[in-house]
Design goal:
single chain, alpha/beta, Rossmann fold, 2 domains, 6-stranded parallel sheet, 14 helices, 12 strands
């Protein structure tokens, strides 16, 4: 008998973000394992959907066959609140939480509190919950009151990478992450301004359309720091792996990460990493492969970058450790097996 599951998602599943990349990979791997995965688009605007969008999402889920297993991306699921209670009466709901919605950067205190309340309600009606890191699992248990027995950690897979060759003459710093406040690109720029006396070039890769206002501010900040000729805001690119393979240092000043797939990709290519001790980043970046500083600390971030730029031996030692750790990361087939564990915990215990 064919194993079937619905995968419900908000927005554009082809968007080049870590979260959507995770969704696409999991869907593909489940299909390889023989699962019939049917997609259910929920509309745009999440995690702040309009009332009509939320109504449409509700209607599409209510239209599914009673008893169906539905895996719902947390960007939408966390906004359902009490709607999840009604849905849970006819559907077996599995939430996929990339990170708690309230921890997204740039939120007002009121918006964060509203998302936390809604997500806590919704998660209480999920039959099972998938998370991408042990850090997120701990947060859901300690802060959202989720029973640990309901949570399965399915760490993102990482495709093997070729060892980075680095820049030719001037060290090349690469940063990968959508241009949104949570990724801390403004902190990176301030840090780079502190080490303008050193030779380097920096390329920031990531969507420039997710937060237009923040992107405009970042472009202005780069210009005001006199770094427009040294920092490239490349937007989305087709092949981030080629970019990583031709870089010397990976730097991303995220204020929070539920996992940090870009860090894992940097490890797979053997890049030394400069990042912040935020969310699950310490879980992903080993001590001997990167330098971690406090979030929102541009001076500390600058000092870490300077250490790697002026000390080639340190950079090479950390690069070797990074590549070694990258080779031991789980692959996407491992991630899918963890997802199957959560799915089967629901299908084997249906009422």
């Amino acid at each position: 008998m064919t194993k079937s599951i619905y995968f419900a998602y908000p927005g554009d599943i082809q968007a080049r973000t870590g979260g959507y990349g995770y969704d696409r990979k999991v869907i593909s791997e489940l299909q390889k394992l023989g699962w019939d995965v049917q997609l259910v688009p929920l509309g745009d605007g999440f995690p702040f959907p309009t009332a009509p969008t939320l109504t449409l999402a509700d209607e599409r889920l209510c239209a599914l066959r009673e008893g169906s297993v539905v895996l719902i991306d947390g960007l939408a699921f966390g906004t359902f609140g009490q709607i999840a209670q009604r849905l849970s009466q006819s559907l077996n709901l599995i939430a996929l939480v990339h990170h708690p919605l309230a921890l997204e950067g740039g939120l007002t205190a009121e918006a964060a509190a509203g998302l936390a309340h809604s997500e806590k309600q919704a998660l209480s009606y999920a039959r099972a919950i998938l998370v991408t890191s042990s850090t997120t699992q701990k947060q859901l248990v300690e802060t959202y009151g989720v029973p640990a027995s309901k949570v399965t950690v399915a760490v993102p897979g990482t495709d093997p990478g070729v060892r980075a060759r680095g820049g030719v003459a001037i060290p090349r710093i690469i940063s990968i992450g959508s241009i949104i406040p949570r990724k801390g690109h403004d902190v990176l720029v301030l840090a780079l301004a502190q080490i303008a006396d050193l030779p380097w070039q920096c390329k920031i890769i990531g969507s420039r359309s997710m937060d237009g206002e923040y992107t405009i501010k970042l472009v202005r900040q780069i210009a005001n720091c006199g770094l427009s000729d040294r920092i490239i805001l490349a937007g989305q690119v087709d092949d981030t792996r080629s970019e990583l393979a031709h870089s010397d240092i990976f730097a991303l000043a995220s204020r929070y990460e539920g996992y940090g797939m870009a860090f894992a990709e940097a490890l797979s290519h053997g890049l030394p990493i400069v990042a912040c001790r935020a969310g699950a980043v310490p879980e992903v970046v080993p001590d001997d492969a990167g330098l971690l500083v406090a979030p929102d600390d541009p001076l500390g971030f600058a000092d870490a970058l300077r250490r790697l730029l002026v000390n080639e031996d340190l950079r090479n030692t950390m690069a070797a450790a990074s590549f070694r750790h990258g080779a031991s990361l789980p692959v996407w087939a491992d991630t899918a097996q963890r997802c199957v564990t959560a799915i089967e915990s629901v299908t084997n215990d249906r009422v």
